[in-house]
Amino acid sequence: MNLQDTIPAEVARPAESRESAPRHTHDVVYDLLQERCPSGTVVDAPCGSGAFTRRLAANAYTIHALDIDHLPAVPVANQRVNAVVADMDEPLPYRTDSIDAVVSIEGIEHIRRPWDFLCECGRVVKPGGWLFLTTPNVSSLRSRWRWYWTGFHNKAKHPLDEAHPQRRHHINMRSFPELRYMLHTNGFRIEQVATNRVKPVSWLYLPWAPVHYLGTRLATRKGAKSPEHARQIREVVQQMTTIPVLFGESLILVARREVNPG
């Protein structure tokens, strides 16, 4: 599919691509992708202005770039880039079990139906394939303290403008346990939790890490419904006390689609 054939008249293709994600996010995600999926078919959703799509296009990938606002600034002649204007809240325009990896950088917090999006990722990704998901880290100690004092998380510091709703609004900020539940009930298993960076200011909250750990252990000690559920709880608590979750600016989750779910 030629890029030019997929651009509606009302959609403008930007002259150049730029990274709109927090610093180092693209670098970390690309390294993780190269490590686990060095070639194959990759969906970049949302692709934004195309900074990550351009990086993929320079290597051995076939890319499906998807965005609701505009198509990526990539050379039209690049036959390995198939771009569509589509809504992540709707079914993804790809065949079942046809994609090696989905990369979703700072997108899930902007959509109305994140659960449906992850369900669609579970449908289109091949068994054994990958999902690389990044989103603002509201489980960090810094974000939790902001919520405690103000009622607003970091990266969502103010009430949204209800008179002028926009797609860039953060309408679905999700904690690590929520994201894990959504992934693990849609055919994925988290294999790595990473972050783009730890800002120096985040280390100011380090003295509260032991308090957080004890509080989380105490709060979850009697919640298990079965031995398997008890194992899951222990695993979640362990993941929640890692440096990326406690101090990272963005959560970067590497999840693999199960080959034999259940």
Q: Your description of this structure?
A:
- With 262 residues, the protein is of the alpha/beta class.
- 31% of the residues lie in helices and 20% in strands.
- It is built from eight helices and seven strands; from the N terminus they run αβαβββαβααβαααβ.
- The chain has helices at 25-36, 51-57, 114-124, 141-150, 176-184, 209-220, 227-240, 243-247; strands spanning 40-44, 61-67, 81-85, 99-105, 125-136, 188-195, 250-257.
- Helix 2 links the parallel strand 1 (40-44) and strand 2.
- The longest helix has 14 residues, at 227-240.
Low-confidence residue ranges: 1-15
How many extended strands? 7
Beta strand %: 15-25%
Number of helices: 8
The side-by-side strand order for the widest beta sheet comes to 3-2-1-4-5-7-6
Q: What descriptive keywords fit this protein?
A:
262 residues; alpha/beta; disordered N terminus
Fold blueprint:
Elements: H1 25-36, E1 40-44, H2 51-57, E2 61-67, E3 81-85, E4 99-105, H3 114-124, E5 125-136, H4 141-150, H5 176-184, E6 188-195, H6 209-220, H7 227-240, H8 243-247, E7 250-257
Parallel strand pairs: 1-2, 1-4, 2-3, 4-5
Antiparallel strand pairs: 5-7, 6-7
Summarize the structure.
Strands 3-2-1-4-5-7-6 form a seven-stranded mixed sheet, with helices on both faces. By secondary structure, the protein is α/β, with parallel strands linked by helices. The protein has helices at 25-36, 51-57, 114-124, 141-150, 176-184, 209-220, 227-240, 243-247, and strands at 40-44, 61-67, 81-85, 99-105, 125-136, 188-195, 250-257.
